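Help needed: design a sequence for this.
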């Protein structure tokens, strides 16, 4: 079980922001945009799911 937790921890650390200052200009990409689990975030998720094409 500790191996599973270590793997989970390394994957979670990959999502963290780097601790060192970044050179400017900073490029905003997919990995920097987060939808937080708030009411608006849930609404946005439902809205996107409703607009997605059915398969």
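Sure. Designed sequence:
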């Amino acid at each position: 079980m500790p191996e599973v937790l270590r793997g989970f921890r390394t994957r979670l650390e990959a999502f963290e922001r780097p601790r060192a200052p970044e050179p400017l200009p900073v490029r905003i990409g997919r990995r920097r945009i987060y939808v937080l689990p708030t009411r608006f975030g849930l609404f946005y998720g439902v809205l996107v799911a409703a607009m997605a094409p059915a398969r």
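The chain has one domain: 2-51.
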